[in-house]
Structures are given as C-alpha cells and as structure tokens.
Amino acid sequence: MDVNQFKERYVKKFEEMYAFDYKEGSIREQFLTLGYLIKNMYAPEWRQTSDTYLENKSKQVFYFSMEFLPGTMLKSNLLNLGLLDTVSDGLKELGLNLDEVATGEMDPALGNGGLGRLAACFMDSIASNGLAGHGNGIRYQYGLFKQKFIDGNQIELPENWLRNGNVWEVRRENKAVTVRFGGHVTLDEDENGVKRPEYHNTMNILAVPYDTAQVGYDNGVVNNLRLWSAEIPYGEEYLYPTDEARDQVKQITEYLYPDDSNYEGRMLRLKQEYFFSSAGVQSIIRYYKKMDLDWSFFPDKIAMHINDTHPTLVIPELMRILMDEEGLSWEQAWEITKKTVSYTNHTILQEALERWPVDMIAQLLPRIYQIIVEINRRHIEKKIPLYGEDLTYRTAIIDHGQIQMANLAIIGSHSINGVAKLHTDILMNQTLHDFYLMYPNKFNNKTNGVTMRRWVQISNPGLTALLDDVIGTKWKKAPNELVVLKAFANDKDVLKRLDEVKLNNKKKFAKYVQEEMGITIDPTAIFDVQIKRLHAYKRQLLNVLHILDRYSFIKENPNTDIPKRVFIFGAKAAPSYHYAKQIIKLINEVANMINNDDSINDLIKVVFVENYGVSLAELIIPAADISEQISLAGKEASGTSNMKLMANGALTLATMDGATVEIHDYVGKDYIYIFGMTNDEVQTLNENRTYHSRHLYETNPRINKVLNMLVDGSIPNTEEIGQDIFDSLVKYNDEYYLLQDFDSYIEAHKRADTDFKDRMKWNKKALMNIANAGPFSADYTIHRYADEIWKMKPGEENILLQPEA
Ligand code: CR1
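Structure tokens predicted for Alpha-1,4 glucan phosphorylase (805 residues):
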C-alpha cells in the first residue's frame, strides 16, 4: 500500500463509518476509522496464521496471565505491519497528524505493573519471533484505577477503558464455554464401573472470548490474545431474576485487583482465577480435538505457561477434563498435565505467595478440590520414601488448612523459572530450596526482557533515526547488533547527536509537565527517574531522603555548582497499602515545598506524575538521564523499567538486585552507578541481628538531620505521616535498611553530578548503555522460553514425537 492508496482507503472508510467528511471528524472518530482500517488489513493474515497452525498441527503455547498491560496498539500495529511511515505521511497529506489521532485511543490498564507489562512484551516477541503462541486472560470491564492527587493524597477513580468501545477486539460468541461454580459433586459408577462425577446445583457462568490480534514484526504472523468476559448463559436468565443475582455474574470480570505484591484473599479473586483458567483450558481442549490426535500427543502440541501462581488452577482443571470428560486414567492425565504446564515465579515476598483456605476452594470448586487433595496425597506418598517425612511435608500442597498455590504449581508442572539470575538463585537456595532438592532439573532461569519495538522504535523515534543512520537497521530484527554502536563511543559527532536526541525528548516531557502540572522544568537539568509501583521494598523513600539531603545542602550552600536535577516519580500504591500512600503524600508535599522555594535557584525540582502507566512511560523513559533501581538487594525479582531506561540511554543508579546485576555485568562498572549492600551482605545482616537503625540515626549527622526534617515541621502538611515514616525508620528498625545504604547512595549521586558536568563523558556513558541493551530484548528471552521450556521452534513443521511408554 502506498501513500495515495492509504489516503483513498482512509477517506472512504471514514465516510462509510460516519457519513460525513473526514475533515469534520473528531479525534476519536479519526482514530476509530484508522483502527478499523488497519484491522481490515491484518484480518486475512490473522485468519491465515490460525489456519496454518491447524493445518500443520504446529505446537502452540498458551500464556495464561491474570494481567496484560499492552499499552495503546495503534502505533505498534502500524510499526509491525510496516505501515508507520506510509500512514504518518498519508495523514499529513490529508491535513491530519498521526500523533494527534493516536490520542484517540484508550490505554488498556489490565495489569498492575511489571508482571502484566512483561506479559504484553512477551506477546509481541512471540509473534515477532514467528512462534505460535497466544495469550489467555481476563477482559476486565475496569482496568487498574485511575490515580488522582488531591491535596497530595492518592485518590482512586474507576478506569472505564471500554466506554467508547474497543476497535481491536473481536467478540466470539460462538466460542463461548461454560464455567461451573459451587454446588456439590457426587462420584457415580458408569456401566463400565468407572467413577464419573455428577454435578448438582452449580452456578453456570458463560465465558465469552474477546480476541485481539497480536501482529508480529514484519513477518506476516498474527497470533491471538484471548480475554474472557463473564455473562449469564443464554436461556438461563430466569435463574438470575434480581439485580443482585445478575451482579454476581458481572462482577467476576468487572475489576482488576489493584494489589501487585499483596495476596488478596477474597472469594471474588478466586472466582476470577478459576474462571479464566477453566475457560482457557476448555477452549484449548476443544481446539486439540480438531487436530484429531491421540491424547498422548497433547504435550507435543500444546504448552500451557502460567504467569505466576494466579492461573495455577489450570493444573487440576486439565486433570479434571482429561479424566472426567475424556475418560483418561489418573496416571495418563497426570503425565500429560505435568508435561504441558510450566510456571514462572515473579516474587519472593511472602505476602505475595498465594494461599487459599481449604474451605473456600472446597465450597467454590468441589471437584477441583477433590483433585487437589488427590494430587497432594500421591505426592506425599511417593516422596516420603525418597526424601523422608520432614522435607516431604514441607512441600505439601495442603498445609494448616491452606492450599499453597506455588507448591501445586511446582508439583504439577515440568518447569519453574525465576526472572533474573539472582532471583532464580534465591529461589533455589532459599525460598524454594526443598523443592530444588526434590526436582533440581525443573528449576531454570529466564531473565526478563522488553520489546525494543515499543520501548525504542515507537517511543523514541529520534534515537531510532540516529541508530539507523549510524549502525544501520539490523538491530531492529537482531537487537544484539546494538553493540556495534560501541565503535562510536568516542565519536564526537555521534555523541553530540545523541545529546540532541535526549534534549529533544526532555523538552517534550517538560512541555507535558508544564501543561499538565504547571511546573516549569529545565530540559538541561539531570532528569532523574524512578517509575514503578510504590512499595516499601523498592525504597522510593530512600530517594526522598536524598532529595531532602540535597535540599538542605543547597540551602546552606546557595552558590554550589552542582548541576540542576529534576526528580521524576511515577507510582501507584495499592488502595489498601497505607504506608505506601503515606509515602506518596510525603513526596507530593516535598515537591510542593521545593518547587515553590525560590531561594534554591531551581537546582532541584520534583515532579510526581499522576496516573503513571504504559503511555506515560513512553513519554518519560526517552527523557531520562538517570534510572533509579534502588530496591533492597534480594527483593526485586527482576525489574523491567531498568532495561527500558538503559535502552534509551539513561544511566542506571542501582543496588545489585534483580536484573540490574546483569545490566551491570554487560555494561561494565564504569558505565553504571552501583551502591549499597549486596544480597549476601543483607543476608549476613539479617542473620547477625546486629542492625540498629536508631544507632545510625543518632551517630550519623547527615542521617540525623534529614530524618529530623520529617518530624520538626520543615515539610508542610506532613505532621502525622512524617512521624509515622520517621517511626518506621527509627523506632521499628527500618525493615528495608534504608539508613544502612544511605551514605553510599549519596556518594553514588555525587559521582553522577560530577560526570554530568562533562557532557561528552556523560554521553559516552549513555551510548555504552544503549549499545549493551540488546541482550535485554524480550525477543531473546522468548527464544529461550521456546527452546528450553516450551520446546518450540519458529515456523516449525511439527513432527510428531513418539510419546513415552
Ligand atoms: C516483580 O516485582 C518483575 C516483574 C516481572 C514482579 C518485578 O521485579 O520485573 O514481576 N512481580 O517479572 C510481581 O508482580 C506478583 O509479583
């Protein structure tokens, strides 16, 4: 399609849809027109991809995830279809602007943070790597809450992302399945003496799929993201005569749970988990039957991956269907299940490990409960002779009246992986050590990755053009080619151009901050960015302590020559996470105080953007100079903003935690600012029990001064929260060791100040970060998942493997 053809089709489409001239269309109408037009264009490839998979009986992976955070899809679809320039030029000739039209799209916030965004990057990479793989999740009516600040406090508003419809999705009513809840189950013998379950008085919910195309990059592959919505089954409306009864159904897919690191124990959450797990498994089974193969080939054709433990019920659900509906024996079903399912762990935080009360599962899912009990019984029986009682019971699925979802996920799958080397080591040596002794071969590492298409090509066109010009375009298909850039590390011209690209991106963000927040920031200042969920372990508070320290230094030394800094925060706190919300209030009040203090010559500004999400990340990341990755070592499983920021030329200022350890190893110590305790040092401090934060408060004058600011009225409107936060650090012994790492953190920032003054030195460091970002492309991560866990090859004509006897 050339520019003229595009223009013609666009104008025609607009008139068909709205029956008036496109020039009078609203942004929303222009966006919708473009969206439908693009959908028409990939529809044949979408259909063809799925036909090919069926014809070739290709092995396919289904990625089960409670969350997907895809971001807006207009530009990513255009990019992947190779139409970005054509459409951008065509619109221009029609007097329209692609960037403006793109604002007509809502950003679907169907996830909390890293876990959901990772799932979206993986969808993009699976299709772009030419792999047959699809997502399976929930079509929440409301995404993650919209964050507002009122008097500096976080307020949560509903995010009605579907209110104007969604161009990309296709409702497939004819593919709906029924998911059963509640009631009770009896096991009756059939004529052959086989026990068959009979369900009584169940509540039947219709799961209706909405499919969204996942367009691969320049390869003609279009996979599927299937999100399920709960409805009353047709013909059963009479069973739901009241609003309340109907609400119970609607509720199942109404809200995304807004906690990312807290286990939420409500019945509704459990319903959600079973709902999309069961619907997904049922539709996969129906599909497999179309291939007309023996059940023993199932694991050769289907892989089911569970993103954290939220979809763990896939395991007993697959067992249930294979036995109860397809008549397989327990042993056959168990072999198939284990070979089909694999599991990723995303956190070692105890409070995030899912445990459901036995009663809850027994009541909501009686048949599934029976199967879990039996899996547990057989596990214990088989392992005691091999590992003894102590170890075996520590790995039990049912313990103290609770179902341990991680234990079920490990026992019922063939692979468990962590998301960065350090995280996987901690899983093997500590958190899941008993399981590691039992199943050493199941454990493996898959360091996270990010898609460079969204995070460089789409969000940073300036850098993309520079790279294309300097190193050619190979990096777009093979991100490791970015390493070629190293050859230009001392090339003044390239470094200067890099500087200009960054400055432009900073100007763009500064404009947003001016318009949306009324804060003026200087684009030549250091843009120091921390963007991630608000959580105590991520230590946004340490960042604040540094800001206060710097502020008081400048007040006392107004003529200092340190470079200007803009501290940029983006973070949502779980609505029930009181402490995190206090930190938000504190940051906002500190921002107010500093931004309005004329005596410091704008040497510091603090910008806390409202409603941080994928779209804002696309604006902030290309503008960042410093990437703050300052979690307590051992706590951040991987982090993924670290990778996006690095790829956009920000310098990482970090503890040795999560994937930042690997970033350090690739980029080299001269191009990163490392501070603080290592994981081993944290462990030692934990074991010795010698940490006394009050002692540090009393003996370290710098710490003393900054902490006093929290309670002596220096910061307006923080009386109560200032005291609470102070107490968490001094009275309750500073759980995340902020004060222990404080001095080295300040030191690291000083080094950054000095380096920034030498522009060429700084730009060289930025360049080295970009050049070393290739290994963190999700394309490589997905390649390793496919190769080592899912046993899949791109476009492979799948040859039937002989099933094991
Ligand atoms: C981790 O906290 C990681 C993402 C994706 C998060 C973060 O470090 O990058 O997963 N874990 O792997 C999470 O959300 C529920 O757990």
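The pocket of CR1 is lined by residues 113-115, 118, 260-261, 308, 346-347, 352, 419, 448, 636-640, 658 (CB under 6 Å).
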